[in-house]
Amino acid sequence: MSSSVRSDTALDLGSATIIRDEDRTNPVAVRFEHVRKTYKLFKNDRQRLIASFTDRVKYDTINASDDLTFTCGRGEALAFLGDNGAGKSTALKMITGVCFPTSGTIEVHGRVSALLELSAGFDMRLSGMENVQMRCQLWGLSEEESKELIPQIVEFSELGKYIDQPMRTYSSGMRARLGFAFASSIKPDILVVDEALSVGDRKFSAKCQQRVSDIMANENVTVLFVTHSTAQARKFCTRGIVLDHGRTMFEGTIDEAVDFYEAT
Ligand SMILES: Nc1ncnc2c1ncn2[C@@H]1O[C@H](COP(=O)(O)OP(=O)(O)OP(=O)(O)O)[C@@H](O)[C@H]1O
Ligand SMILES: [Mg+2]
User: Fold this and answer.
1) Which residues line ligand 1 (CB under 6 A)?
2) How many domains does the chain have?
3) What is the residue with the minimal CA distance to atom 22 of ligand 1?
4) How confident is the prediction for the chain on average, in pLDDT?
5) Which of 11, 54, 118, 261 could disulfide-pair with 176, CB 3.0 to 4.6 Å?
């Protein structure tokens, strides 16, 4: 889904702090300091429900992010590498605000657009067009900017006359297409990509890859990129972080990081 926080915010969540602003002159785009995200694992949903009323229910915990510290500079393209469950998506979701850290500090300077969970956040009762118009407003675009951008979004999505149909009539691929078309069209300061490059069928997926590489080629855009394809990481990114069980195992140039990951 795409996410944006338009106002300067410093959110204090107990022992976690989140600082967001739109200062694109800050040489730091994203900074994590000692970030931990702990999930509670209950035996079943019933136990989870009971736990919201009492603290006597037993549960295990897992650190999806564990003492994560890194800085992503303005204009940098940073890849997160790691096996399934290593904590890559969790890190990205905390940048977009989809989930919150348990402790530590996260700073995000600039407007974030995310190519992850592309179908999320649409109102299925509204048409594709109405959803796009609403998102443009939420993103803070002026009427003129929206007027220019909306036809480009619609054209990229290739939805044809379906753009005026309620989104509940769309296939999941069609929803993802519209999500991708919007999130990749709005010229963010920070782009977060989580393996979103295989949207839709083969032809559309190739078009998405081209769009992402065009955005990444723009030096003003900061990119945080999660992929299992080390070839793509080498192609798009300058620096890499290898995660394992939520922890940083290695941080360095993209070639060093890929070599480290492939050797483990
Ligand atoms: N809502 C949740 N509740 C409990 N555990 C979760 C939740 N979301 C993620 N986790 C756990 O956190 C860990 C990290 O998950 P995450 O999705 O960040 O991994 P990932 O590196 O993106 O993996 P993949 O390569 O499979 O996408 C995993 O062990 C996962 O089971
Ligand atoms: Mg993931």
Assistant:
1) 39, 62, 64, 82, 84-90
2) 2
3) 89
4) 89
5) 118
